[in-house]
Specification:
Layout: E1 2-11, E2 14-30, E3 36-56, E4 59-73, H1 75-78, E5 92-100, E6 108-117, E7 120-121, E8 129-130, E9 133-146, E10 149-158, E11 166-170, E12 173-176, E13 181-188
Antiparallel strand pairs: 1-2, 2-3, 3-4, 4-5, 5-6, 6-9, 7-8, 9-10, 10-13, 11-12
Length: 190
């Protein structure tokens, strides 16, 4: 069962969206014997908001956030098989992306992405949590004409801060975050 409501407002080149939600559904995960099945009821309620558009003719942004309070209830929680937090539910997620096109350099743009997540329960009994993580991606793009064709040179650095750690693949299953990764590529339209 899902209930949600929201508002959308446009101010010039900026669109703002805000909403509230409540979602109730059965909670499935691994039980004490490692079998996948129902463990109770999950209720998640929260708010979400975003802002997107051109702040100036040369600067565009997309920013958003979700703040939620997911809770598991039922016999598995009462008996200690499951903790009150569902595995993998991120209670706070913030994203910001910006693209700046300097007016003095046609075809050139710089971009940044900021992604921040709260800690998250990593095991069904909530004994292990993945800590909060923040990632920053940086990029630059130059579009130009080459031999009568559109071309783009793109450089990017993912995880520019070199954040180490793990991400969740499932209850008690983890993968390693990629370290800092640089990428340079060139495209040409024919």
């Amino acid at each position: 069962r899902q209930i949600d409501a929201g508002l959308r407002q446009k101010l010039g080149g900026i669109t703002m969206v805000a909403g509230v939600f409540r979602l109730a559904k059965p909670y499935f995960n691994l039980d004490a014997r490692g079998r996948f099945g129902p463990l109770g009821q999950l209720v998640n309620r929260g708010i979400e908001a975003s802002v997107a558009g051109a702040l100036t003719p040369s600067l565009s942004i997309v920013a958003g956030g979700v703040f939620s309070d997911p809770r598991v209830s039922g016999q598995a929680v009462a008996s200690g098989v499951s903790g009150p937090l569902p595995v993998g539910a991120i209670r706070r997620r913030l994203n910001l992306s910006a693209d700046w096109r300097p007016p003095f350099a046609p075809g050139l743009s710089f971009d940044i992405g900021l992604f921040a997540n709260s800690s998250t329960a990593a095991t069904v009994n909530n004994a292990v949590h993945i800590p909060a993580q923040t990632f920053i991606d940086l990029g630059a793009r130059y579009g130009f004409r080459l031999a009568g064709h559109d071309a783009v040179l793109r450089a990017q650095i993912f995880n520019a801060g070199g954040v180490n750690g793990v991400y969740l693949e499932g209850a008690g299953a983890y993968g390693l975050n990629d370290g800092r990764v640089a990428q340079l590529y060139f495209t040409l339209d024919f």
